[in-house]
Amino acid sequence: MIRRLLSSRVNYADPNNIGACESPKKCRCNYRFQELFKPHVFGDILISPKNRQYNKDGLLDLEGHNSYDERVVMECSDACGCSWRCPRRQLQRGQQLSLVVYYLDDIRGFGVKAAEPIKKGQFISEYVGEMRVLKEGEVRDTSYDAGFALLNRNLKDPLIPRIGVYALQDIEVGEDVTVSYWSIDRMQEKSEIQCKCIEDCPNFLPYD
C-alpha cells in the first residue's frame, strides 16, 4: 500500500541551487521540478512537494525530514550536460551496495540486512514491487490487484515514477534494512494490527 504524503509547507526550490550537478550552468533539474510539482490544493490541504537533492558525495539531503512531506528527487538527464558519474544520478546507476536477503519466519517472510556500512542519505535500492510465487492451479483474485496491462496501458517508460529507497540513518553491517511507511507517532496509536518487524515490537500499523 502506498500512502500519499501531504504537507502544508510551501517549498519552491531555488533554480539557482543546482545541488551537486557536475554541470551547474546547464543543469535543468530544479526548473523541471518547479514546472512539474507546483504546490496545489487537495480538498482543504495545501500539498507542497519537497525537492530533495544530493550533495557532492551523492548523499540525499535529509535536513528537516518529515514523514508527512511529499518528497521528490529530481535526477539529472542528458539535458543537463553531465556525465553518468554525476552525483545527481544515483538511482539511474542502480543498486551499488551489498545486501543480504534472508528468511525471517512465516509471518514476516524475507528480510534484508546490510552487508556493508550504509551512510545516512545514501541510495540503497529501487522499490520495484513484489514477487509472488503461485502454486500450480492457484489463481490470484484481481478484485483488489489490478492487472499490469490495465495499469500500464498508456504509459511509456519516461512517464512512470520510480521509487528509491534511501537510508534515514547510518546502518551498520548486519543491521536490518526496513522501509519506513509511517511516522513513529502514527505507529504508536493502538490498532488491531500489531507491527512484527522485530520480536516484541510495541508499535501498531495504521489502517489507512
TrEMBL record:
Alphabetically ordered keywords of this record: Chromosome, Metal-binding, Methyltransferase, S-adenosyl-L-methionine, Transferase, Zinc
Location(s), subcellular: Chromosome
Name of the featured protein: SET domain-containing protein
UniProt record, GO biological process: methylation
InterPro entries: H3K9_Histone-Lys_N-MTase, SET_dom, SET_dom_sf
Domain annotation SET: ranges: 97-182
Gene3D superfamilies: SET domain
Keyword Phosphoprotein: no
Species whose genome carries this gene: Caenorhabditis latens
Tagged with keyword S-adenosyl-L-methionine: yes
One Gene Ontology cellular component annotation held by this UniProt entry: chromosome
Cleaved signal peptide residues: none
SUPFAM superfamilies: SET domain
One Gene Ontology term of the molecular function aspect: metal ion binding
Family annotation (PANTHER family): HISTONE-LYSINE N-METHYLTRANSFERASE SET-23, HISTONE-LYSINE N-METHYLTRANSFERASE SUV39H
Main location: nucleus
